[in-house]
Specification:
alpha+beta, 9-stranded mixed sheet, about 25% strand, two-stranded antiparallel sheet, 4 helices, about 325 residues, L-amino peptidase D-ALA esterase/amidase
């Protein structure tokens, strides 16, 4: 099975609530990381993503948050921000530190979930940030029905949290992380063969390949039906190669090709499909690795991460 390697300069932490059937995933940067974002779906839920426009003043982030909980889940960023401030992280403003924590949510509200005054996502954000700080830099994070992928679903199966990585010469690493909660399906028609089959490495999502014979219903829409509004796939491309904010934004744009390669249909009016891209800048940019190549590989890696998230959720 293909090695799961985190891009140097980042770590992942999860917090899950079985009663809510929801959770939070935090991507923690070791040091402020340059970041961009691109939204391609019609129903996004976000916090502080305007800061990531290359025309804006702020260029770097301390963490990125992926959360369940629909709009309630945006509060997870407050918890992550609190943890970062407690640990003296953030943009200096006089005697204060203001952590920069953009966030995105998916819609996984459980009809039986309830709380008193405030939803629990702020506490889950704190816990996920603390877990990221404790994370083993070598061992991959848990995949499947964990963190932001805890309550995720797709049109034909459970969704989940997925990850894949691509290693390039000169120590460059591209890592894709994603919480898959699509209105569409990652499977070809009514089979259990993944649309992302051509991009699979070392049997990382079952080695099933494309179906044979090709199913007659391959291009039918396998959607969530009455729960069609409960969607959104959110993720991030992480790399250690030095990129400016405009290049991060372009990287996120090209990584969206991975959504289209792995989910049918993708970027619908019912999905808030979003990808962050972040660079730790630990490896100098090289003319031998143009953004065209980096972006194309980011799309492939994201497609693999999506299929891996669903595959791992299947196994639970």
């Amino acid at each position: 099975m293909a090695e799961l390697r985190m891009a140097p300069g980042f770590s992942i932490g999860h917090a899950s609530d079985p009663k809510l059937a929801s959770g939070v995933t935090v991507i923690l940067a070791d040091a402020p990381a340059t970041a961009g974002v691109v939204v391609q779906g019609g129903a996004p839920g976000t916090r502080e993503t305007d800061l990531l426009n290359p025309a804006k003043t702020v260029q770097e982030v301390d963490a990125l948050v992926l959360s369940g909980g629909s709009a309630f889940g945006l509060d997870a960023a407050s918890g992550a921000q609190g943890w970062l401030r407690k640990n003296d992280r953030g943009f200096p403003v006089g005697p204060h530190r203001v952590p920069i924590v953009p966030a995105a949510i998916l819609f996984d509200l459980n009809p039986t979930a309830s709380w008193d005054r405030y939803p629990p996502y702020r506490e889950l954000g704190w816990e996920a940030c603390a877990a990221a700080a404790r994370a083993d830099k070598v061992k991959a994070p848990a995949l499947g029905s964990v963190g932001a992928g805890t309550g995720a679903t797709t049109g034909t199966a459970k969704g989940g949290f997925g990850m894949a990585s691509t290693q390039l010469p000169d120590g460059v690493v591209i890592t894709a992380v994603v919480a898959v909660n699509a209105v569409g399906s990652t499977y070809v028609g009514s089979t259990r063969h993944f649309w992302a089959a051509p991009f699979e490495e070392e049997g990382e999502y079952g080695g099933r390949g494309y179906p044979h014979p090709w199913p007659l219903n391959a291009t039918e829409f396998m959607l969530k039906g009455s729960r069609r509004q409960e969607n959104t796939t959110i993720g991030a491309i992480l790399t250690n190669v030095a990129l400016d904010q405009a290049s991060c934004t372009q990287l996120a744009t090209m990584a969206h090709d991975g959504f289209a390669r792995a989910i049918y249909p993708a970027h619908t009016p019912f999905d808030g499909d979003l990808i962050f891209a972040a660079s730790s800048g630990e490896v100098a940019a090289s003319p031998n690795l143009p953004l065209l190549v980096l972006g194309a590989l980011a799309g492939n890696t994201m497609a693999r991460a999506i299929a891996r998230g669903v595959y791992e959720a299947e196994q639970r």
